[in-house]
Amino acid sequence: MRNISLLILMALITTTLSAQKGYNIGDVATDFKLENIDGNYVSLSGFSEAKGFILIFTCNTCPYAVAYEDRIEALNKKYAPMGYPVVAIMPNNTNIKPGDSLEAMKKRAIEKGFTFPYLIDSEQTIFPQYGATKTPHVYILEKVLVENIVRYIGAIDDNYKDASLVKIKYVENAVDELLNNKEVHLNKTKAIGCSIKI
Amino acid sequence: MKIFIYFALLLTFLNCVSNQSKLEVYDFQGIKHFLYQSDEKVYVVNFWATWCAPCVKELPYFEQLQENYKTNIEVLLISLDFPNQLESKLKPFLEKKQIKSKVIVLDDVDMNAWIPKIDSNWDGAIPVTLIYNSKKRQFYAQSFTYDQLQDEVQKFLN
Fold first, then answer.
1. Among chain B residues, CA nearest to A196
2. By CB count within 10 A, which of B98, B109, B121, B136 is most buried?
């Protein structure tokens, strides 16, 4: 009887695990070719100098994403010169969220002076592969030879409300560790966000 | 001493007056007991926000559920609206939609600390719903129709 319970339990655990789609830490992340707000198409392979990427699924319309706009820009300013540029991808269905159209993205990027690529996943085929479910949702990738390995998944920091009250800068800590050839010790964090509109 | 008593009375009075239109705002510690009540009722706890379109869409179903099962179900709507938008967004929304279920606000920035405590599989996207009674509990990372919601709740009522 105990064995049967154990079997059922294990089956349940396996089902739960396999139900979680998308990447985990250590997985190889897919490259892509997505349209940027300047009309060019951007791929990770195009960044020959990069050591990795701060890939952020974000958008115009989610209040959490908006709360982080300046911090995302600051991340790019700080880490792009060190080999970890920000690449932002807007994953929403723009029929549901017209405020996230390429035109609206362009406008927002100009208003906020974004210096990072702000791409649109117009076919909505990339974010499901990563397993992104909300905005903002960060994936830090480390380039190892020709592959990009997932090293961190989660939030930007621990205070969406007020950047000045942040206690732990999850993303900065992770990139700093990678730059120092250390293992990312806090590699998964959770935060409330807006579900990606499909 | 007399002054002190008057002052205390005044404070109590002011508190009563302002409570009429005041939302209950808690940190995670403060909402914990709402997630573990162990009487005869089935508790349906929905995490939502006015800025979340799919949440707003399913809200009427939770209202309908509360209306149809007045005695044995208690619906609790936990709002994750931004604290600086409670007056400007949440309150007018609740009034306009005439929300009757109990609404409380969760304001706790350390989300990485409390999200896993609600459910280890929750990644932070909303809406999500927790249904529980004194015997079992289940977490749903999904949107509901009324029929789906009723079906799930039935499993707890039987």
1. B125
2. B109
Residues A61, A104: Cα–Cα separation, whole Å: 10
State the Cα angle at A100 between B94 and B144, rounded to 5°: 45
Write the pLDDT tens digit of every residue in B76-128: 999 999 999 999 999 999 999 999 999 999 999 999 999 999 999 898 999 99
How close B65 comes to chain A (CA, Å)? 24
- Cβ within 8 Å, pair A190-B116: yes
Q: What is the pLDDT of residues A39-70, one digit of tens each?
A: 999 999 999 999 999 999 999 999 999 999 99
Q: Provide ipTM, 2 decimals.
A: 0.79
**Does the model's pTM come out above 0.90?**
no
CA B33/CA B14 separation, integer angstroms: 27
3-class DSSP state for residue A93?
coil
Q: Which long-range contacts (CB under 8 A, 24 or more apart) does A109-113 make?
A: A109/A37, A112/A69, A112/A70, A112/A73, A113/A73
Quick one: fold of B2-157? Glutaredoxin (3.40.30)
Report residue B70: phi and psi, to 5°: -60, -40
Computed over every residue of chain B, the mean pLDDT equals 90
| CB contact at 8 A, A109 and A118 | yes
Alpha carbon distances (Å) from B25 to A152, B3, B13, B96: 32, 31, 20, 20
